[in-house]
Specification:
- The chain is an all-alpha fold.
- The chain has one domain.
- It is elongated, with a radius of gyration of 16 Å.
């Protein structure tokens, strides 16, 4: 398999994970604000906790970004996801407080 094909696979996987995690983050916030619950909230909280542990263990950097760079991301206008980098560079600033607020609100509601 060529590096270009590997990069395509990493970008597809990374984009899918980004979408799932963005959705999970919004669900945690929604659950915290509205008090809505259910199995979807349990799954979302679990995913957010796992993702947070992965980021902390990786020095607050996504490990898939390093893999994408290894296969050529950053060259020829290619990024580590199919989402424009101008959006993904703000991931921590946007989703971090959103997740924290959602988890705090969920804890207060218990």
């Amino acid at each position: 398999m060529t590096d270009a094909r590997r990069l395509l696979c990493v970008r597809l996987l990374h984009t899918a994970i980004y979408g799932v995690m963005a959705t999970a983050s919004l669900l945690v916030l929604y659950g915290g604000i509205t008090g809505a619950g259910g199995p979807w909230l349990t799954v979302a909280v679990g995913l957010v906790v796992i993702e947070s542990l992965v980021f902390v263990a990786s020095g607050l950097k996504c490990p898939l970004t390093a893999v994408a760079v290894k296969y050529g991301a950053g060259q020829d206008g290619l990024f580590d996801t199919f989402i424009p980098e101008r959006f993904t560079r703000h991931t921590f600033r946007i989703f971090g407080p959103m997740i924290l607020l959602g988890l705090v609100l969920l804890a207060v509601r218990q």
